[in-house]
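Please fill in the sequence for the structure shown.

STRUCTURE ENCODING:
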């Protein structure tokens, strides 16, 4: 399968690693985050709508930033190309219609894990590829069931530092894989970038 060179509008090391595994040549764009709250949810916005909107806004913000960099006369390092596809993604963990984002501290991480314990939650990962003025979009939806977590499970996992910076306070590719009894959907989608859906979007840019 032939896939194009792209720009990745995400600092996530997991998305970078998945693209490498897919054989997708890419460069990470370090797009400045907007001021204010990180990816705020709008009033009465459904979680499934939220994740698609935030992925779309990330792509649009990256395209706008890229155009400004290309137009600048003082680019440093490797020159950028505004015709290159730009990929963005957003992953959301949903439980009881609540969005479990990235924990602010180990205490909040522990609280999230206690809620996930012994239950099924949903992971939505929206992927957007912006190319030639068109936004190509796809969503991966995965059901994940956790085993019953003990106090020691949660305390030890939070002490490892792994929950920090991860939606829902866990990374399925790490130690939290021991918590997962069952998964229905995309493993790489739970990691942060569904391979199948991403491949289809990138093929549309060739």
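FILLED IN BY: designer on duty
SEQUENCE:
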């Amino acid at each position: 399968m032939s896939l194009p060179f792209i720009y990745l509008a995400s600092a996530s090391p997991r998305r970078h690693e998945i693209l490498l595994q897919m054989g997708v040549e890419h460069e990470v764009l370090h797009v400045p985050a907007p001021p204010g709250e990180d990816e705020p949810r709008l009033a009465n916005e459904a979680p499934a709508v939220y994740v698609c909107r935030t992925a779309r806004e990330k792509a649009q913000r990256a395209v706008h930033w890229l155009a400004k960099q290309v137009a600048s006369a003082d680019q440093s390092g490797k020159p950028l190309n505004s015709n290159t596809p730009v990929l963005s993604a957003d992953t959301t963990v949903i439980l009881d219609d609540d969005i479990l984002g990235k924990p602010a501290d180990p205490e909040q991480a522990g609280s999230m894990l206690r809620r996930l314990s012994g239950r099924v939650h949903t992971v939505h990962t929206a992927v957007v590829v912006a190319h030639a003025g068109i936004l190509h979009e796809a969503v991966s939806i995965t059901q994940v069931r956790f085993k019953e977590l003990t106090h020691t499970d949660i305390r030890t996992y939070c002490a490892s530092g792994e929950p920090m910076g991860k939606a829902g306070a866990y990374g399925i590719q790490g130690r939290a894989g021991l918590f997962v009894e069952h998964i229905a959907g995309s493993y790489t989608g739970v990691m942060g970038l569904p391979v199948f859906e991403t491949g289809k979007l990138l093929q549309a840019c060739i």
